[in-house]
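I keep forgetting this: the sequence line spells out the residues, with the fold written below as integer tokens. I include a record here:
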Amino acid sequence: MKVYVPRDSAAKAVGADAVADAILAEAAERGIEIDLVRNGSRGMVWLEPLVEVESERGRLAYGPVTADQAGGLLDGSLESLGPVEHIPFFARQTRLTFARCGLTDPLSLADYEAYGGLTGLRRAIAMTGEEIVQQVTEAGLRGRGGAGFPTGVKWKTVLEAHADRKYVVCNADEGDSGTFADRMLMEGDPFTLIEGMAIAGLGVGATQGYVYLRSEYPDAIAVMEEAIAIARANGLLGPDILRSGRAFDMEVRVGAGAYVCGEETSLLNSLEGKRGVVRTKPPLPAVEGLFGKPTIVNNVISLATIPVIFEKGAAHYAAFGLGRSKGTMPIQIAGNVKHGGLFETAFGMPLGELVNEVGGGTASGRPVKAVQVGGPLGAYLPPEQFDTPFGYEEFDGQGGLIGHAGIVVFDDTADMQVMARFAMEFCAIESCGKCTPCRIGAVRGVETIDRIGQGDASAIDLLSDLCETMKDGSLCALGGFIPYPVMSALTHFPDDFGARKEVAE
């Protein structure tokens, strides 16, 4: 009997370890031979712990499972949700980057290869650096960490830079509210990130890589470090990867928890052991990055998508999507929502369909008031904009941004003046302090919103002017994008901006 119990942090947070222990104890007591696999998550967080049992019908899903249901699971009296792939939330996905996540044992290299792993790396080894970069360019892959910058352009710049040493840096400092795709992939399919970084190294001539991982992710840190050791022991990393005569190695570096270190130049400073503050650009990291050398800085999902591009071909990947938004996007649905989780789909699905059909509407049962897309720097979109297709240019045209594709849902009890104040307060706390518009502007923003709450209507125009200054004058996206949530809240929900009840009374 083969049983799968996730080792993913989300599942463990709601008792997956206790469920696994109970299944093993119950099986031992009944004399049942059991093969228990600690897999990654399938991404249906509201069903965690989601236990799967191998059967003639495929892998049957049970969830959420509690420890006291272990006996029912083993004797067949516990009601099944049917095959995992038939659950509507899962069935309507297009899984490319997350194709193996939850399907395999994350630390089994044999499992990884059995489901297509290393096919891309083997093909890349037979290519020149120029051919590798061309494949990425033709696939149309854009940075999945926020900016949506064409990955092929970044790689080409590093390839053509002349230096005695180059680096590949994975930005795994996932700090946006409502996002968990990076963590879920590193915990559930770490070899795909390793393979993607190795291909990147072959493409641009880099021999060393670093995964900059946030300290708040201890499980992801442990899995990645073990996976790297396994990869090195099996010749996937080191001086002679897959006996190709070409070198690439990598290691994990743990950050100290500053949100601004999600910005690539702050990350590089932190990686060098310096204070995490933003660097001025130019020079770009692709020209002068880590230790002053040409450096690829890509997000986890960007790098983890590289293997499928080389396995299936650039044209196959580019065939998915909408306009210049090619391929698929792992969308994280969170907040006040019935079915929260990770949903990978081709670009183009309308926002309303993601919220109301895929997510099932609010968990509270009340009407949706707003959805914030793109983390704490993302705009609040009202239901009137729910027909917006999920694409970079399409969201930009609505005054929003996709960012890391985290969707946070709010019902009609949300106070958007409070949310706008939170955005400014967040920026004030997390600012690295290097530039005045961000460092001072966010503090003044909190004060200005408080004036609005005290009944000073003249402060509304002042808030708009302040946001314009921060947008145009900040060195990085932290100060530059905070106006998105503030101004979208003010624009779409003007009735929420005024004297607070306690002040009026």
Summary: The longest strand covers residues 328-335.
